[in-house]
Amino acid sequence: MTELPEEVTRVVECGTLDVLVNNAGIGHACALLDTPLDLVQLHMETNYVGAVRIIQLVRASLASKHALHSISDILRVELAPPGH
């Protein structure tokens, strides 16, 4: 997957991506030794690889937000009245 999903593209183009919450996932109640490998792979693909992929897709937007947040923190300290 090298292209952004349409929904992610729209958000990034609007410049409104402030936070990424990786809360999608699947689960099941079964002992590990009884779990078929294809189900384990589905879980890893959905719960881990899916989250990593979305992070990779939006990283430029998130990195720029982090940089702005860091600069704001620096200015807050530098511009604070003495003793604060």
Automatic annotation (TrEMBL):
Entry GO MF terms: oxidoreductase activity
Keywords: Oxidoreductase
Keyword Signal: no
This protein's name: Uncharacterized protein
Pfam families for the chain: adh_short (PF00106)
Signal peptide coordinates: none
Coiled coil ranges: none
Protein family per UniProt: Belongs to the short-chain dehydrogenases/reductases (SDR) family.
Lineage: Eukaryota, Viridiplantae, Chlorophyta, core chlorophytes, Chlorophyceae
Gene3D superfamilies linked: NAD(P)-binding Rossmann-like Domain
InterPro entries: NAD(P)-bd_dom_sf (IPR036291), SDR_fam (IPR002347)
